[in-house]
Every structure is written in structure tokens, then in C-alpha cells.
Amino acid sequence: MALVLQGGGALGAYQAGVYQALHEHALTPDWVVGTSIGALNAALIAGNERATRLARLREFWDEIAHHDLLDMRQVPDVARRLNTMLTTIDSVTRGVPGFYSPRWFSPFVAGLPVQPESASFYDTGPLEETLGRLVDVDYLNSSDGIRLTVSAIKVTCGHLENFDTAHRRVGIQHVMASGALPPGFPPVRVDGELYWDGGLYSNTPLEIVLADEPRVDTLCFMVDLWSSEGPEPMTLEQVHTRQKDVLYASRSRRHIDAYLRGHRLRRLVRLLREKVPDHMLSAEERAEIDKVGTDSTIHIIRLAYAGRDWQMASKDINFARGSIEWRWEQGYKDAMRAIDHGAWHTAAPEGAGVLVHEIMPESMRICEGR
After folding, report:
1. Of 346, 337, 248, which is closest to residue 297 (Cα–Cα)?
2. Is the model's pLDDT at 367 over the cut of 50?
3. Residue 304 in 3-state DSSP?
4. What residues form DSSP beta bridges with 113?
5. SS3 of the chain: helix, strand, coil, percent, to 5
6. Which terminus of the chain has a smaller tally of CB atoms within 10 A, N or C?
7. Is the pLDDT of residue 226 over 50?
8. Bridge-partner residues for 193, per DSSP?
9. pLDDT per residue over 165-220, tens digit each?
10. CB–CB of 172/127 below 8 Å?
11. Which one-letter DSSP state was computed for residue 100?
12. 230 confidence band (pLDDT: 50, 70, 90)
């Protein structure tokens, strides 16, 4: 089973709720793939033994949550919105404890040159310390653990790099590189190269799962935090919100279509192989064709965050505790509904290749925290 986690800053609490539901039903992924905040959540999941995994995830989100002045469940919408705006402003001006802090008086803000590792508005040293406490790097890279893949983009050439524990040792720096979104966060140097957030290239790393070899039957939970669909914007704030949603929304349909084209070709190769006598092919040709012709089915359970944050473009930096708790709860409820439905247990049509099961969000409310 694979778990694919999209980037989305504070919206990532929804992913934590999804994982809690999977955890409680012993649906432990064999592989977690993440970008940006998805990479952080993925590292917390894969970098801890089962007994402490959920507690470490909860500790991370509790630590970076901004304390609310009031109980957001007991006040009207206008108070919730005001609280959200104030906590978001605080996250911008003072940073988020355990995550990032502002670089006061940095020449970078004035447009002057600085060292590449300091070319940002915020310092992510606090995040490095937090992940160092909450992620067991040795367990993360052990053969008994969950496979982890995080994506980052090489600054100097734009090449997307996948740091994968199946092929190399992955540490805190690789995870932080995947979440280094400019110009807010600085690039992270790994093996002499500077890296930025992998979401700049592909914010939903589903293609990593689809391209994995050898191809085997797979159950994949894909958690999306941004919506490609939305209302026509009428204000500047709504325009910025819609722009972000479109920019970071999943391109999974495109990747799935490409996978299905390849899948049909592989099936055709297998059918043709059955019609060709063995003596007409060399041993190497037979082995290569047999490998290409392997058939498999991937069930994708797509869970999508439905919160709208009052059309706030800054929703990904809304670390208000009430918002984080609401997102976690919604992720948990949506995943529980997906588990109860169990769509992946139905027999797949022969040659289906990929089956996508859309789990409609339980709540389509305009705002969150209710």
C-alpha cells in the first residue's frame, strides 16, 4: 500500500487525520511519498516505529499550532474569521515556533546579495531542530521501516530529484529540501547542490508511484490539499486564492492517462508474446518482453480537503489551532468513510490498469472550524 501526500503548508493537518484513520485500522503503508508539507508528514510517519508514530505526528502539529484566543467551536463565523486573519498575520510577522522564524534586518529583503543558504525571508532552523527530535533517521533508513520518497528540485538546473530510502540513505536535510519553498524558505544544500521545494515542479507526486518498477498490484491513498475547481473570483483575494489552487492542484489525471497508455501497450506486448514461438526470440529478448508485458492494477483512493478558508490566499499559512484541529478531524472522517466503503475490495475489470475511487468530502462548508 502506498500513501501519496501533496504539498500545502498548514493544510497538511488534513493528511495527518487521514493517516490516523489508516493507523487505527492497521492499514500501514509500505511506502509513503511526499512533497513539501507532505514530505514532512511522510518523514514523521516513516521515521518512527508504529507504537510512537501517531504520537510524533500529533506532537509536530501541536507544536506548530498557533494558540487561539477563544474556542473557535463556540463563536460565530465573524469571530472565527477575525481569529484566522490575526493568527495568519502573526505567522507572517513573527513566524511559527518549531517551524520558521523571520530574518530580521536581512540584506535579502532589501534586494542585496546574501549567501545562497540565506536567500529567504525566513530561517527554517527551528524546523531542522523539530524534525531532529521527532524523526528517527536510523529507523527511517532501516530495512524494517516504511519506504520513504521525497521530492526536491535542483536550483541550478530545475531537475526534479527523488530522494528514496529504497536507493539511498535519506536524512533530515533531504526532507527539508522538499519543503524549501522560495522566497519564504531558503534552499537546502544536499551533497553540494542546492534544492528547493519539489512542489514547484510537481506538487502531487503520484507519478512516482505509477512509474515504480517492478509493477505490482497496488492500493494507493492519494491526499489532495488544493482544488483545481472553484468559483469565478470577484475580488483580489479570491483571485489570489484561485491562482494558488490552480497552481498547486493535482495533475494526477494527466499522469493516470499517461500510465494507462503505457499499460495498454504492455498488455498488447503480452498478447503478441503469446503468438511468437520461443525459438524466434533470444533469451534476452524473451526476458525483456516478459518484463514489459507484466500486468497489474492500481486502486487509487483519492481524498480531497474541502475547506475553503473564506477564499483566503494565505490559507496554507493559517496555523490557527482551531483550523488545524478542524482539518485533522475532516481528514480523519473522510478516511474513515473511505475505509468503511472499501472500494478497493471490488473486483477490477480485466486490464483496467488504474481504478480511481473519488471519496467526496463529508463537509463542503464554506469556512472551517465548525
Report:
1. 346
2. no
3. strand
4. none
5. 50, 15, 35
6. C
7. yes
8. 190
9. 999 999 999 999 999 999 999 999 999 999 999 999 988 898 999 888 888 888 99
10. no
11. B
12. confident
**CB within 8 Å of 249: residues ≥ 6 apart:** 203, 204, 224, 226, 227, 228
DSSP state letters, 102-142: E-TT-GGGGT----GGG-SSEE-HHHHHHHHHH--HHHHTS
Smallest CA-to-CA distance from 201 within 223, 178, 221 is with: 178
Amino acid in position 24: E
Q: How many residues does the chain have?
A: 370
- Which grid coordinates are listed for 244? 494558488
* Contact in structure between 345 and 34 (CB atoms under 8 Å): no
* In the chain, alpha helices (H): 13-24, 37-46, 50-64, 77-94, 125-134, 137-140, 172-178, 206-210, 236-248, 252-275, 283-292, 321-341
Residue located via cell numbers 475580488: 235
> Is 8 in contact with 248 (CB distance < 8 Å)?
yes
Q: Give the phi and the psi of residue 219 in degrees, each rounded to 5.
A: -105, 120
- Mean pLDDT confidence for 318-330: 93
